[in-house]
Amino acid sequence: MTEATEIAVIPGDGIGQEVVPAAVEVLEAVGDYAFTEAEAGDATLDETGEALPAETYDLAATADATLFGAAGESAADVILPLREAVGSFVNIRPARAYPGVDALRPETDLVFLRENTEGVYAGHEDRLTDDVSTLTRVVTESASRRLGAYACEYVQERPEHDGFTVAHKANVMRETDGLFRDTVLEEAERAGVDADTVLMDAFATRVCLDPEQFDVVVCPNLAGDVLSDLAAGLVGGLGLLPSANVGAERGLFEPVHGTAPDIAGEGVANPSATILSAAMLVESLGDDDAGAQIRTAVESVLSDGPRTPDLGGEATTREVTDAVLERL
Ligand code: ATP
Ligand code: MG
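Above: inputs. Below: predicted complex with magnesium ion.
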């Protein structure tokens, strides 16, 4: 008897409680997976005194893959350790527009490869005096090299083979972003991959004016976080963007959005981002057919099916999920 693939499910707070169960229903429809649910986030902190109980961390560290929703105020104490639990060094954030969905820039089709272990999220923040606070930004050659090598493999596996762009701010942060940019470029040269660079502020303007000039964008941690949210605005909102935190042996899959406190509990969150994250999850397990099936169903619903209010419709999370399940 072979053991079923184990998927850890951590809905977290806010709309995580609504969109993660929707994605689990979709996964149940396409494959034979064993789900184990675990707690994390603000509600868990209130109940247990810990935002991320050891059982949850251990589950993510051992399961074949993890599906995560969002955490509220405690996000930094939940998602950063969870990314570490799966050994993730890169966060893949595809941002593309879908036919039929109103988008500021319908031609947008980007993938952000965000460094996932350091930068300003390395946690060295201090309050020195009443007046002065500081933050130490950490960039290492080893993490930059690992990300650069991954970016090369990533673009080489894509049929288009278009290379990538490194977004940085090395004109100001000469040491940290200089090291990041130069190391990623070295990996590109070693692999024979085309790579160019762009200042991250210039990128923000240029991607709004003409997103087609970019394809795969390799970013330091904070820049990847901010610029992918910006790209969400170009394609129709955060309800559409999935992400994959990739490690060497396992991954953690989550929507780019957070807990959406303004709509949480109303049953109207758009489940597409989390269902598309589930597609990335099954693909990471080698189930490319299941991934393609999920994507096709989501795309079909986005083009002419029921829509949640963020996309201008009146449908509920339940109705959109049912439509995806029907079209699988
Ligand atoms: P957090 O601190 O948890 O990130 P936030 O207030 O930044 O909370 P986000 O979840 O990042 O909220 O969402 C930003 C905006 O996008 C909110 O107005 C929210 O309602 C909307 N939004 C995010 N995700 C979705 C979704 N899946 N469906 C519909 N609207 C969404
Ligand atoms: Mg947010």
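The CA atoms of residues 164 and 195 lie 5 Å apart.
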